[in-house]
Every structure is written in C-alpha cells, then in structure tokens.
Design brief:
Elements lengths: L11 H7 L7 E4 L2 E4 L11 E7 L9 E5 L2 E7 L5 E5 L13 E3 L2 E3 L6 E2 L5 E3 L6 H4 L3 H7 L4 E7 L2 E6 L32 E9 L3 H9 L2 H6 L17 E7 L4 E7 L6 E8 L3 E5 L8 E11 L2 E10 L5 H6 L2 H28 L15 H17 L14 H5 L8 H28 L1
Helix pairs in contact: 7-10
Bound molecules: FE2/S2 (inorganic) cluster (FES) and fe (ii) ion.
The site of FE2/S2 (inorganic) cluster has 9 residues, from loops.
Length: 440
C-alpha cells in the first residue's frame, strides 16, 4: 500500500527496543521487561477476526461487510453453521446485495442462480444467459462455486479466519491458527455469571490507528476525562505510569502502575492480534469487569469496532431497566468514540501523506506498547500483504453505502438511542408524576 510506511519505525528509540536479545535472558529497557523466548508475536494480519455479535447474524438474513476491502458476506446455513463467502457471484460477478437466503440456499439477485450452503450451484434453471451456459446447464452448474473463508461462532461472536485468499473448498485453507487465544475463558475470564452490553461503531479512518488509540492510556485522561464516569480519570489528574510489558507468541500485555504509588494498579491492556484488545483491572479470574474491543479492518480508511462490556456488578435487571443503564451506557460509548474520531481521522491523513516524520515525533515512556504494536503491524503487513484489494478509485466505492451502518459515521443510531432515553424517562418517571399531580 502506498504511503503506508511510517517513518517513526526507523527511529533510534524504536530500534533499541527491537534489538535481538541473548537466548533465555530477561532484558529490561527502561521499564519494559522482555523475555527472549517470549519476544515475538507469531500471529500476523491473517487470523481470526470477530466480525459481529452472534445475535446480529439472523437466520435467513445476509450480513454484508468487508475485510481489507474484499467484499464478503455472512449467513447461517440450514444446519446453523456460519458461512463467510466472497460477495461476488461466480456467474457474472454481481454482488449478492439484494439477493436472498432461504434454508441455507443463497440466490443471486442478478439472474437467480441458487447456491447450496456448500457453495456449489444447485439450480440454475433461472439463468437465462444461454450464450454463457450453452444449453448445458448441468455441466455449467458443476463448474461454478462460491468462494469462502472459514467462519465459526464463539463466545456469542461470529469469527472469520481471514487468510491469503478465499477458496471454493474450505479444505484447501491450511494452517488455520486455533481460535483458543481469543476465547475469554482461555484468557482467564469466567463470564457466565456476567451481564454485558455492546455497541458497534464505524469510522472513516485507518483500522490500525484505532488500535493504537485503544493501546494509548494517556489520552484517556485528556480526551475522555469529562465523559468516563470514574473519579480517577479526569483532565485535572494527569498521571504517569510504570508499566510491565509481557510479550507472548499470541499476545502483548501491559500492566500500568501509578508512578506515585508503584503497587497500585491502574489498568491492564492485553492485545491479541490481529484485532482484539481486552481492558481490565487485576487478575482476570477475580476481575469484576472486562472490556472486549474488536477491531475490523473493513478497508482502506474504513473500520468498525465492536465494544462489549462484561460486568459482575449492577446485574439486577429491574434496577438496570429503571436507571436505563444500557441506554446511558450506549450514550457514553458513542460520546467516547465521537471524542476520538476527529483525532483519528486527521492522524490517518497525516500518516497517509507521509507527514509523520521520525525526527518530529518523540515518544513517551508510556507509548512503549504502541511501539511494539507498530513493529508488529509493519512486519505483518509486509509478510501477509492483506491490502491487495485496496480500492484506489474512491469514486467507485459503492460499498460504503452497503456496509457502514453505525455511528459516529452514521448518526441515526445515536439519535434513536437519545430518543429512547427521553421516551423511557418520560414513561417511567414523568408520566406517573404528572398523573399523580393531576389526581391530587
Ligand atoms: S451474476 Fe449471479 S446469477 Fe448471474
Ligand atoms: Fe479514546
């Protein structure tokens, strides 16, 4: 991808962190502990991506999205298995947008070719292009197949394994990394007695910049200080941290301790490449709260984030309903993402124009995890080359309309949520009060 090079990769600070270590030794650079045998992430940009919450993928409904600009779609087949296929009909290349799915059978909207959930064309009676099928429907049908990626359902998320290319036979996709390290239980969390809420948000900015933002603890105080309902997080309490970074083949974890009180933990951030971040406090087994952030690289300058909170407090349904907890929580999420959005957009612009120069940027101690992230990203991008479908002609991009559906890019849901809060507050509190006043 053009202009993808980030100059600060070449900075002296950055290379110092990355220099090779002797086998088996524990090396400390500033506050970072690096263990030789643990120092490499072995997952690149090809891997499992959480695409949507399970409940968003309804039976007999098509779910359109893209990964690295490749148009894809999801559906449940007749056995409730998840299918992820390329959104290109193998007859004449139409999109399945406007098509339909019924009992695992997908119908193309252009000439009505029907594909079984296995991806083969079962019934092309309705194809009328005889110059293409040459009266030999049966033979033709055997030769056209849908192209698929591996997909599955875990922890109430739909995951897709994005790899080098889609295949007409899933058996041809080899070396699939296990899904285990994305599972909450494998990360030490037991969420069966938790309640959760989530929002999805769409951004016109670089996917990797959003990950960087979620690895960055310093901006939380400055940008979100007035919005995050935590007395320790506000604009007037700018703090610095010591950090303990652990690097494993499947994750990077950073634990932040207050510099002023080195035994007091502020937060833990765990990055599980390519797209998942877990934010929590204390040991996972006793943690009362975990935020799961999934980052979906829809395309160039196009990304989605799924945020899900699991919590062990405020579980009472009635109380939650009374205080409109879910709606208020959503409002806070949207506000937080709005606060980041302009920064992320302009930072993406600066990055893509090659304006972020190593000699003009000086990282802070707390930015170390971001260094690791960019190193991993650059190497993975070179190794995997996921941007091969990048759309260079922005005017031709019809997929934004099909794919984008969440705020801050689309404000509609945010407005609906605000109206919901007003409506429910009126019904629950004001209406009974007015009624009471009237009868008195
Ligand atoms: S393009 Fe799909 S049936 Fe013709
Ligand atoms: Fe932020």
């Amino acid at each position: 991808m053009e202009n993808k090079q980030i100059n600060f990769f070449k900075s002296k600070d950055f290379n110092a962190v990355l220099k090779p270590f002797k086998k088996g030794t524990v090396v400390k650079i500033d506050n970072i502990e690096v263990r030789e045998k643990e120092k490499h992430l072995n997952i690149g940009l090809y891997g499992w991506y959480a695409i949507c919450p399970s409940k968003d993928l309804k039976k007999n409904k098509l779910y359109f999205f893209s990964l690295f600009d490749e148009p894809l779609l999801l559906f449940r087949d007749e056995n409730n298995n998840i299918r992820c296929i390329k959104n290109i009909c193998p007859h004449r290349g139409a999109s399945f947008f406007g098509g339909s799915i019924s009992n695992g059978e997908l119908t193309c909207p252009y000439h009505g070719a029907k594909f079984s959930s296995e991806g083969t064309c079962q019934n092309i009676d309705r194809i009328t292009c005889s110059h293409i099928v040459d009266n030999n429907y049966n033979n033709y049908a055997k030769r056209i197949h849908l192209s698929q990626y591996k997909a599955l359902e875990k922890d109430e998320y739909i995951f897709v394994y994005f790899s080098d290319k889609s295949e007409t036979d899933l058996k041809n996709i080899n070396d699939v990394l296990p899904i285990k390290n994305y599972e909450l239980i494998d990360n030490g969390f037991s969420v069966k007695d938790c309640v959760s809420e989530e929002v999805l948000v769409d951004f016109k900015c670089d996917w990797s910049r959003i990950i960087e933002n979620h690895l960055d603890i310093l901006h939380i105080f400055w940008v979100h200080g007035d919005t995050i309902p935590d007395k320790d997080v506000n604009k007037n309490v700018l703090v610095s941290f010591n950090q303990k970074i652990k690097i494993n083949p499947t994750y990077i974890e950073s634990i932040y301790f207050y510099k002023s009180n080195p035994t007091k933990e502020f937060i833990r951030i765990k990055y599980i490449p390519p797209g998942r971040i877990l934010i929590y406090k204390g040991e996972p087994s006793v943690s009362r709260y975990v935020q799961v952030l999934d980052h979906i690289p829809l395309g160039d300058n196009k990304a989605r984030v799924i945020v899900r909170h699991y919590r062990k407090f405020l579980k009472n349904k009635l109380l939650n309903n009374l205080i409109l907890f879910k709606e208020i929580q959503k409002k806070i999420f949207y506000k937080i993402f709005d606060e980041d959005y302009m920064i992320l957009k302009t930072q993406t612009y600066n990055h893509k124009l090659g304006l972020i120069k190593n000699d003009e940027i000086k990282l802070l101690g707390e930015d170390r995890i971001i260094n690791y992230f960019w190193n991993w990203y650059k190497k993975s991008e070179e190794k995997d080359n996921p941007w091969k479908f990048i759309n260079k002609n922005k005017e031709l991009d019809v997929y934004n309309e099909i794919i984008f559906k969440y705020p801050p890019e689309i404000k509609k849901l945010e407005i609906i949520n605000n109206i919901n809060i007003i409506r429910k507050t009126f019904i629950r509190y004001l209406a009974p009060l007015i009624f009471l006043l009237l009868i008195i």
